[in-house]
Amino acid sequence: MSHSRTRGEAKLNSINVRLGGFLEDTPEVGILCNIYNRKDFGKGLRNLYVPFRDDVQVDLAKGHYTIEAQLPSGEVVRQNFEVTDSTRPQNVEIRLEDSPHEWLGWQQIVGNVEREGYQLLLDKPVSEVKTDQLSISATYPPRSRFQRGFFFQIPGMNKLVHDRQLEQQEPFKNLERIGVEIIPLKPDEFDDASEVYFFNIRRGNRHLDYGRFMDMLSQYQNNTDAIRNYLFFRGEGIPAQYCALPIPWINPLTEEPVGVEVQFYNNPIGPKVGDTGHRISVVVRDSYVGTLLGYLGTGNILSAAEVMKQSRAESILYSKRINPLAAVVGGYILLATQEIKNQVWLDWIKNLNEWFPWIPDGAILYAWTLLKKKDISAKEKREAKKNLLMAYKRGIPFYTKGVKLLLDGLRIFDNEAKALKEPDKVVETALKMIWRLSTLINVRQPFTTVLLESEGKKANVRRNV
Amino acid sequence: MTLIFNRNIQGPATYAIIIGVGEYSNLGEEGFEEYDDMEQLTSPPLSAREFTRWFLEEYHYPDKPLAYVETLVSDAKTQNFKVSSRKTVSLKKANKKNVKKSILNWVKRGESNKDNRLIFFFCGHGMTKGYETVLLLEDFGVSSYAPLDNAIDFGRFHLGMDKCKAREQCYFIDACRTVPNILLTTYNYVGDPIISPSTYDSSFGSRYAPIYYSTLRGESAYAREDQPSIFTSALIKSLNGAGSEKKGKKWELLTDRVNFGITRYLKWNRELDNSLPQQSVATDNLSSFVFHSYKNNPQIPVLIGCRPKSANSKADLSYKNDSDDVQRSIKQSEDWGVDIQTGKCEFRAEFPNNDYRNKESVEYVNPPCLTVELEVKLN
Asked: pTM for the full model?
């Protein structure tokens, strides 16, 4: 078979484009690339979707090109290559290696770790997560800094949002009084060389075990009051912080649980006085949604939408019954790219909200699909407000994006009520709590992580260089 | 108000408001301790003037031509702005009263057509806590009982601007985004939103309103004394060509490439001068539409130098393309940074004293930036 064709005057050559380097378990869903002809920059290909695990074949005329790969982290990798006239396919491999640690490649792809700038804490890989036993591996800063960590669960409504002690150093003193179970994290293993902790969640001598994982899945899908899970850490020079754990997280194709990693990364631009810059980072090793989460986390919504469209991710996100938390990611992308206009998507979001009452983000998405509707009716406005308040009652949103949208939505209704001189106390109360929460979250993370203490004063650096 | 440019245009047009606050009237010489060592600044008024000049001299988008530019600065040295060789204007101070009035006028102009484009640029002190971003105006801090009076609650302002009919809005925020103690003690009030958010007449259609921040949340933005800020300089480079794209035969700048150009230029520039602090820009609400189309070929930042670098001080470096034939005026040890238009270009290193063999290289100059390394050999 000939691998060259002609289009008009130019002979086209078959090129196999692939991503090279690193990972033992690469994401299924790839990234976007642009190809530019260096002699005529307007020629080439834009928004080419290149999966991690496969080649993509394109046709290019003879010439010198630059390929530019846009990682979800915001990094751009550029590489030059030459195409010659040939009857045989030519290969172009974009090397995405140079990850500071090979096993951190996934984190690098999805944006939690950059190749430069981050001080890395770890020399060894994080162990695999066994979600059927809720053994969550959490790496942590050096032993000398560790003070306290625990895992806790709250059934049903998240009372933390209402807890007035949210900003105090030990906000969880009262949790046990209101029935929240706190399980201290005692590191099972500590590796002196790399100073990595591995935690397993235990109640007594037994691993915390929900029983068969599919039973838990069934419970979540059947709209019962699902349990929300959190991790809390504090250390010397490390502000107290906690994160909402996105579990259970299930691969929608295989219906198998997917590992959730909790790591600490060091702020790339620092230091600050009284704050080492260590922050929680949550990553799900979902081969379909991982990349989308990365793009979402760095604000690159457009690329997320393009990848979603071109890869299998879009159809997978439809399967909300399997993994509603992943479906929410799709919803945020659609909302941000204003694609959420046709009735199919509107109904999809409505179902996501109604079928999973334990997910605040579903109610937030639904409220905003209404707010963004053309010619919104008075009835739809009331419905939007109702759903924002419902989201507030459901607890802390799983996603940072959800916190922002909830804050914005409540602000709109609060302002309107005040402008009409008809203050809405319910909205006002909700807004106060969500505003407080929004000032504490780490906006650089896609999953909601909350800093409970001051971020510390900037080290003495003049702003004018 | 200080209208730098005002033209009556029928149909969609572009309206810009540009603010640069360097002099803060309530900060003493030693700064206010409670304001976390904030100091007077020299670069924001210069940054605002640079950005204004770019709009007056370079901005080109025929579908929405420039109709209005208003610039306000607070500058300890001078309020003057030389618009052209024959015209100098005195700019209004960027205090709360003036800025609020100007913003309301700007919004009113935007209301004339839903296809209008609004541009907002701010350079000065800023603060961030979580999702809150506060922009400090000249008379910020007039009272310690109400420390955030005379500041703009940018989050609410951006949200409120969805009420304005103009559906394309671009926001450039060149300010520190550090977390001062003030924001930890205020309660649900972080300044005046100017335009309060509320539900709006959604028959306007979707709004496209990207925000470009000069730095990540919690971090500082930097500048050299008496020069435009690092971000504004990089922004101008991106607008001039580093972020450009070619569609067919036309060069354009899309809004989702503006940040790409800034980021690549900052990184490239830091390789040139590693005394520059690391600064990572951020965007929010990114969308894609044509921001600017180039009348001539875009200008691309290019770095030309010999390798080994020690040969630089002995070399006559030059470049030649269809429109220019330029030689570096002095020999020096650093690489030579220039802006060159896109296209084929010949680069030369010549050694009049024959220390090294002359070297030539032909390259295609394309966005975002280009480094030309001429490998030279000793004679």
From this structure: 0.87
